[in-house]
Amino acid sequence: MGNNSSPSVEPSGIDSLIASRLLALRQAKSLSLAELAELSGVSKAMISKVERAESSPTAVLLGRLAAGLGVPLAQLLTEDKGAPQRLRSRAEQDVWRDPEAGYLRRQVAERDAASGVEMVEIELPRSAQVGYPRWSGKPYRQCLWLLEGALRVDYGDERFELATGDCLDFGVDRPLVFKALGRTGCRYLLVASPA
Question: Does residue 140 contact residue 75 with C-beta atoms inside 8 Å?
Answer without folding.
Answer: no
